[in-house]
Amino acid sequence: MSTLYYNGTIYTMNAPMDTVEAVLIHNGLIERIGSYEELKSSASEFIDLKGKTMMPALTDVHQHLVMIGKKLELLALDDVTDIDEMKEQVKAFKTNRSWNNILGYDENNFGNQYKITAEELDDLTDKPTLITRICAHAGVVNSAAFEALNITKDTEDPEGGYFERDKDGELTGWVYDKAFEEMRAATVEDTAESLGEDIARGVKYLQSLGIANVHTEDLAYYGDFNVPLDAYLNTLGKDALKFRVNLLTHEQVYEDVVKADKTYKENFVERDAMKIFADGAFGAKTALVSEPYNGTQDKGLQIHTVEKLEQLVQTARANNDAIAVHMIGDRAIEMVLDAVEKYPVPKGKHDRLIHISLLRPDLIERIAKLPVVCDIQPTFLTSDMPWVEEYIGSARAEYLYPFKTLLDKGIILGGSSDAPIEKVNPFLGIHALMTREDNGTVYNPEQIVSRFEAFKMYTTEAARIVYRENIQGRIAEGYFADFIVLDRDVMTVTPDEVKETKVLKTVIDGEPVFEM
Questions:
Q1: Which of 99, 169, 176, 502 is the 20 to 30 A CA-CA neighbour of 449?
Q2: Smallest Cα–Cα separation from 482: which of 507, 501, 461, 502?
């Protein structure tokens, strides 16, 4: 059976403002495009768009899907701006699990960047509790959590992380990077079945936002890697819940995952590059920078030694793989470029540079010469800029998120959210690319990109990142029948109206998976 979509504004993403009159789909693919009159005789089902806008479905090239699913049912604090309300919500939070796991703490939401302490948490709950900071590179725990893991003020900091201590050497409750990961691992009580529920919950929400494909990194946080991997394989697929995921493989489980050599689901659940962490995040001042943070001697946190980083890259190369590296500070970026220049990616593949928040002219020139792509998060810009300049100064802030410069150098950029670190709605990211505006302030306006380039980052360029540019990200013959119907013409309305876009229908593999 072939279905014909017609009577709307159908953007192909082949070129700016390029449209077709009708689209014929069959067996999960776009069979033909053209006029209604020439295609109608081939159709057995007709979908009248009634003047609405249709375009390719969107992709988020860097997020954490399982955590999105969990956040939809757990306590999340990222929108809480009152300290007393935050404490009341923490005190009232109850689960039947042995740990309280709470998400989204952001000290920038509170006056004087208020950070709750272990002692204060002890007054709110006696159950072991971890509150994850919004960046997911740090968190705060109570005394019961430290006791559960036999962590005291005399416990040594792990390599690549630390337990924060006050001037008297006492634990404050705050834990960073590798120390945070140890605490988070202790909260895991998941099975393939429970994670399958989290995945399904997250996927249905993403479908409602017009997203059909995500690149996610989940295999190292929920016990044995088989647990989340089996959850994905059991939950998604052509004959299951229709959604496409590319699974970045965390450095800690990479070799085990490769050795397991599981059977994946082509175009639905696929293994992707080795995920490596080079540094932390700006919010916790653990992003690795080449010059100290203002007013300090601190340059952030280097997760790996140069030798260890090179060893990880060589492990990926030995398996004919690319790498995908979290790098926020300019020194972290420099270290990674040194490694990939020394150990090039296999022919026909490209490495992925994730975040690349703080750059320098010399680093941009080096990136432009390499077979790399960049996974960017446009809403980091609007989240960070109100406060990050205080950390690094105005001179360095000129090289925060220089998207237009990167595009002008011919560098491939894919759009993403890093959700649930940021809100996953892709239209917020597209708005940030088009305006670089937040609450009336425009940050580095010379780095604004065009509307078409912004949408490309979530469609055609996202497809290039996973080597599917010939079958995904456009409305063209032979491409996936993955597309969305919108409540407004996103190519002609004002940028602020783009931000308010609502998805009316999402189609994946030719099947409607969401409809308002």
A1: 502
A2: 507
